[in-house]
């Protein structure tokens, strides 16, 4: 069983590719309403994006609920460039036999830029090759640690990740421009269930994982986060790998 969390589709795509290649099933952990039954599973995998060199909150919460069975356990952390100690943190919550980082297009546009199209394409092509290798290793239950932690990983995964959770996950800067058509997609798809439509416009509650799905997936690019995103492009995996 492969559980995934994904904002803009990279981790969902990676989880589904791995499931296809290993004859397994990929399940969106944000859609589960109770702890999964993993009895009888020979493999348990987690695929998720790195957030500020650490774990997304739903992944951390979910990992704590996973049973410790005799199954082969592995995790793949998708990231724009480096994973820091995200996988080490996960290993403390849910002991892993194998840990991987998988570089994929960056979706963090609050203060950083998207990859250009050629870079994004090259990253996805390389990730596809790497997933084939990971699938063979996982199928053989071969313990592997292939993680690009980057520089100052301990500092970034502690201090910066703490700062991200404490100060950066506010929804106050989200708004929809007049381009909004009131289609409701942002409200339907938010994994935190925090967006509701009022008078045909999205309104954000407090809870937010900062997955950026709403920002990137609005069909008319109406959603902004402060002023900084107005000039930025948008990214979802479907631009490169249709579902
Ligand atoms: C809030 C946030 C923080 C991020 N932090 C990092 C990071 O620390 N290191 C990194 O390489 N990429 C970082 N990224 C980029 C994502 O990890 C990367 O694009 C990932 O593949 C997105 O996966 P998804 O499409 O499944 O959501 C961050 C993205 C977001 C939204
Ligand atoms: S997805 Fe975009 S167009 Fe649709 S309701 Fe949300 S902001 Fe408006
Ligand atoms: S409000 Fe947007 S960024 Fe926050 S959890 Fe929902 S979809 Fe993700």
TrEMBL record:
Entry superkingdom: Bacteria
Cofactor(s) the protein needs: [4Fe-4S] cluster
GO MF term list: 4 iron, 4 sulfur cluster binding; metal ion binding
InterPro entries reported for this sequence: 4Fe4S_Fe-S-bd (IPR017896), 4Fe4S_Fe_S_CS (IPR017900), EFR1-like (IPR047964), Flavoprotein-like_sf (IPR029039), PSI_iron-sulfur_center (IPR050157)
Residue ranges of domain 4Fe-4S ferredoxin-type in the record: 171-200, 206-228
Pfam families for this protein: Fer4_9
Keywords: 4Fe-4S, Iron, Iron-sulfur, Metal-binding
Its job: Ferredoxins are iron-sulfur proteins that transfer electrons in a wide variety of metabolic reactions.
Name of this chain's protein: Ferredoxin
Organism: Subdoligranulum variabile DSM 15176
